[in-house]
């Protein structure tokens, strides 16, 4: 199984700065930010499943465009997996016929171009031997992270957007086959109060998470705000703990 980083920034700016989306093999997206825009139409047609961490625009922005572009090419609906609260938000505020058509009712509800699947914390979807499990997260809106586990028994965890979350740390520590942890750090330390208010992480907060991990994955940091990326990177380099954080990059590939 391969996980390719399509976008991993907290903002946009040209081809190199694009928001969160991960491609699992060729048929699964984890979040659907502007990073998904690098895929051409044949690649978009191959997407059968989208897993959303939460309903903020930087994580869902391209979902309406994808289903509008490829729906008529497909013989089966695109399945969108998310927590019940997230699905309620996007159905009420995006696919509501005002912002965008409700593709779960096109051409009709018996034969939709898109369908929704509720995935609560601790539940998983098994897709051809690949298991994707919803993990706890703590953000400004209802949110989850995901464990992505391959058929060969290796896992990657994506934290989603979160502040320090005791339940997520506990869940991560229970994953014995964890190879990599992709975890957000959106703000520099000087914006610690803003990170707390927005329920994101800054480097000091990330370090407190890493210090509590008993597993030993590679650590990759995502969701840096572009204006503060250099400052955050310098602060991350000062960490003296056991697990050394690296900056996640566009087009990085994880093989599990």
Automatic annotation (TrEMBL):
Xref: InterPro entries: Metallo-B-lactamas, Pdiesterase2, RibonucZ/Hydroxyglut_hydro
Positions of the Metallo-beta-lactamase domain: 18-190
Database matches in SUPFAM superfamilies: Metallo-hydrolase/oxidoreductase
A Pfam family reported for this protein in Swiss-Prot or TrEMBL: Lactamase_B_2
Protein name: 3',5'-cyclic-nucleotide phosphodiesterase
